[in-house]
Amino acid sequence: MKNNEDFHELSYKEVVEKYPDVSPFVILKADIQRRTVTYTPEAVEAAARGGYQLQSRGIFTSIGRDGDFFPVSLMLRDGSSVFTSPVRTPREPYAADVVDGKKVIMDGGEIVDEVDFWYMPDYMGKTTSSGRPMWQVASARPQRMDIDPYSYCHFWDDGKGCRYCNMSSHFKKDALPARIDAQDVYETVREALKQDGRFCYIKLTAGSILSGEELFDDEVNMYIEILQAIGKNFRTRKFPSQMISSAFSLSQLERVYEQTGLMSYTSDIEVLNEEKFAWICPGKQLKVGYREWKKRIFDAVGIFGKGFVNSGIVGGVELAGPGGFGSEDEALRATLEEAEDFAVHGVSVVHCVWVPYPGSVFYGQRTPSLEYFVRLSKGLHDLRVRYDLDTDMDDYRRCGNHPDTDLARVFT
Predict the structure, then answer these.
(1) Distance between the two ends of the chain, CA-based, in angstroms?
(2) Residues 134-152, buried b or exposed e (16+ Cβ, 10 A)?
(3) In whole angstroms, what is the distance from residue 13 CA to residue 54 CA?
(4) Which of 93, 92, 80, 81 is nearest to 36 (CA)?
(5) In 3D, which of 78, 104, 74, 73 has the Cα closest to residue 23?
(6) Are residues 331 and 384 in the same domain?
(7) Nearest Cα to 127, choosing from 181, 72, 90?
(8) What are the tens digits of pLDDT across the range 217-240?
(9) Are 39 and 86 in contact (CB under 8 A)?
(10) Residues 206 and 352 reside in one and the same domain
(11) Is the backbone peptide bond immediately before 41 cis, with ω within 30 degrees of 0?
């Protein structure tokens, strides 16, 4: 974010006071995400004793492989999730601790609120027939199973990956195969479903695969293989599921829809501005381009239907330096104007909170103010209300990563 000596950032308490119509849990969630969190030894010990998750493998971060055990994520008192990790940023992090036997979130030595951690599902202590630990095949949020079938993005082959993203550097450290075996996925899902009531949704995402007769063909084939393996565990043709992938062509999307049980589709455009997109996502701009990426997302509504197509943005990255917007007002205005074009076409835009992770080009930059994320969340939510768009695929139960979709719990 560009420096502005006259700009005063409101604190968490000041933002809560200024926006009484926004749940304080939504505000706290956004603030924890942008500032990240550390876990005291007492918090880690409490999680270990209480049957909470201390291991997770993802395409951006892995927990518990090298002895770095800590709670995978937080849950607030209203049941909303706070998906974050204890990385260091220029901002002072919150701290998860235990005080008088209660798990709490601390800020500067002051208790902000009570919190909880994510419980470990039954399947995570088991292995597949190939010997793969199931927690490395599928991670789990409170009510959603996450499967990342390919953990490398080929936009990084020539150094043109998205500048906020640390997937390439994380893959080099992960030391596990990029591709997850379809049989391992089938067995893990089968085992997970034995725990009645634990999961209501399955999400898949991966790095972009550029190869094939047509751009992304090999990525499409991979998703079809994995989705078909998952589908063997269901009696119905379709099952509650989301694919977050590259922007596939109409014919590619038709193949995925017809040959699998997939119900919803997301392709993240990352930043809602053609100029900023080209700078922040150079590989995507070179191979597809902003306007074509948008068109492919809009085309998907004709296949999956209104309310079953989303696009995600990395909220706040549009203010990254040196090529981002010059002010938060300018960034918000441009982002919401473009988000309305998506809404007009039946596509909901959801945002995650930008964290400049180690290994990303933007590592070390300072993120926008908490108030900016509150205004962005309200703006995106208001668009969904105005255009009658549902976000069941990305609500607080199925995802929990988006402060803006949490607002639907209060206002709709």
Answers:
(1) 33
(2) bbbbbbbbbbbbbbbbbbb
(3) 31
(4) 93
(5) 78
(6) yes
(7) 181
(8) 999 999 999 999 999 999 999 999
(9) yes
(10) yes
(11) no
Asked if 229 and 182 count as a contact pair (C-beta separation under 8 A), the reply is yes
Residue 133 shares a structural domain with residue 43:
no
Please state, in angstroms and rounded to a whole number, the distance separating the CA atoms of residues 317 and 354: 6
The owner of tokens 């900016």 is 372
Instruction: Point out the domain boundary residue: 120, 145, 165.
Output: 120
Residue carrying the six token digits 């930059």: 365
Q: Which residues contact 372 (CB under 8 A, 6 or more apart)?
A: 316, 319, 328, 331, 332
What is the pairing mode between strands 139-140 and 201-205?
A: unpaired
> Per the domain annotation, does 65 fall within a domain?
yes
- Are 138 and 76 found together in one domain? no
Same domain, 247 and 362: yes
Tell me the residue type at 124.
M
- For 298, the domain range is 12-35+122-411
**Cβ proximity of 93 and 36 under 8 Å:** yes
Beta strands 56-57 and 348-353 are unpaired
What is the per-residue pLDDT across 275-320, written as a single tens digit (0 to 9) for each? 999 999 999 999 999 999 999 999 999 999 999 999 999 999 999 9
Q: Which amino acid does the sequence have at 113?
A: D
DSSP states of 241-294: EEEE-S---HHHHHHHHHHS---EEE---BSS-HHHHHHH-HHHHHHT-HHHHH
Which tokens sit at 229?
Answer: 């393996």
Which of 120, 135, 150 is the last residue before a domain boundary?
120
> Positive or negative CA dihedral for 334, 163, 32, 206?
positive
| 1 within domain boundaries | no
Domain membership flag for residue 404? yes
The count of domains in the chain is 2
* Single pTM value for the model: 0.93
At 412, is the pLDDT very low, low, confident or very high (cuts 50, 70, 90)? Answer: very low
Residue with tokens 């990395």: 314
Residue 249 counted as domain residue: yes
Structure letter (DSSP) for residue 122: G
CATH number at residue 134: 3.20.20.70
Q: Which two tokens stand for residue 316?
A: 């706040």
**DSSP class of residue 50?**
T
Same domain flag for 49 and 152: no
Cα(167)–Cα(172) distance, rounded to whole angstroms? 9
User: Which amino acid is present at 306?
Assistant: K
Is residue 77 a contact partner of residue 114, using CB atoms and an 8 Å limit?
Answer: yes
Same-domain pairing of 16 and 50: no
Same domain assignment for residues 83 and 29: no
pLDDT digit string, tens, across residues 16-61? 999 999 999 999 999 999 999 999 999 999 999 999 988 777 666 6
